[in-house]
Amino acid sequence: MSLTVLTSAYRLRSICRLQRIQSHMMSSQVEPGVLLEKVGSAGVITINRPKVLNALNLPMIRQIYPQLKKWENDNETAIVIIRGAGGKAFCAGGDIRGTCRKPYIALIEGITMGGGVGLSVHGRFRVATEKTLFAMPETAIGLFPDVGGGHFLPRLRGKLGLFLALTGFRLKGRDVQRAGVATHFVESKKIPELETALVDLKSPSAEDVSRVLDSYQSQSSLDSEKPFVLDKHMSDIDRLFSSSSVEGIVQNLKADGSEFANKQAETLSRMSPMSLKITYKQLKAGATLSLQDVLVMEYRLSQACMRGCDFYEGVRAVLVDKDQNPKWNPSTLEEVSEQAVEQCFSSLGDKDLTF
């Protein structure tokens, strides 16, 4: 059989398997929460719970992590692609912590929050589309931007990461890349073709993957003429969010008096005071820590939130009763003592997270 025929047959099999995954994604029948398949030399992870915005749960994490490690040690697996089913959300919640030494491409189409951020943002390649919606809304439910938020957020330009973490501001489409959360922007209609191009790569290096992604990004002109949504506010964000405390940030916003500053001050007034102070300290510390050390810190914070009351109250007000009227305790920034914040970061001894 000629090389051309062999190549064509290989490509056809790859396309057929991708189509089978896509048909799984559109099925209305009860499906497993995560699909793990080899497509050519690519390991493909599909988060498959579209009815609940592809939220992660523990059984899914227990499936994904060992498969990632298996592919990592498999010489016939060259790259890993992770995607969300249904087109509405990549992943809107949950958490997984791990690393992958092979080229890891996250196609973050749709809602990307919580666990969706953890599954994507620490990888080398993150591809946004016009349907991508990114946010770290945790301070609104008495939590903090976990899944390594303390590592990647302070590494965004200026005070942008702190602004996103404290306010939960939402980024959409091309702005997700402009902020530095995504590495590439590709129009949604080109994603199937991009997947096929990635799958067809033979023993690709990270540079090979980068060239393919760059090529598809160059073909995507949608919204390219629009400025970054926060472009005209970046100098204000850097100035107003440069303070040694959350109280100082609020004072800066109120003293500024502009429409933008007033809106951010009003937003912060609705957030959990304890969460705001924890988040501020988390990002300040995380700016100089490794990802592993940040995850150890964030595990300590998660346990502190479980011991407190704001997380339960935030979930009740925002997600359960949906009255959007949480009763925070303490109710003001001034009532949150420095000692209480410090205790949240204290070692858990032999219960600390280990790798």
TrEMBL record:
It is found in: Mitochondrion. Its EC number is 3.1.2.4. Keywords: Branched-chain amino acid catabolism, Hydrolase, Mitochondrion. Signal peptide: none annotated. Residues 43-97, 99-345 form the Enoyl-CoA hydratase/isomerase domain. Pfam families: ECH_2. SUPFAM superfamilies: ClpP/crotonase (SSF52096). Coiled coil: none annotated. GO terms for biological process: L-valine catabolic process. Hydrolyzes 3-hydroxyisobutyryl-CoA (HIBYL-CoA), a saline catabolite. Has high activity toward isobutyryl-CoA. Could be an isobutyryl-CoA dehydrogenase that functions in valine catabolism. Also hydrolyzes 3-hydroxypropanoyl-CoA. PANTHER family: 3-HYDROXYISOBUTYRYL-COA HYDROLASE, MITOCHONDRIAL, 3-HYDROXYISOBUTYRYL-COA HYDROLASE-RELATED. Belongs to the enoyl-CoA hydratase/isomerase family. This is 3-hydroxyisobutyryl-CoA hydrolase. It comes from Etheostoma spectabile (orangethroat darter). The lineage of its organism: Eukaryota, Metazoa, Chordata, Craniata, Vertebrata.
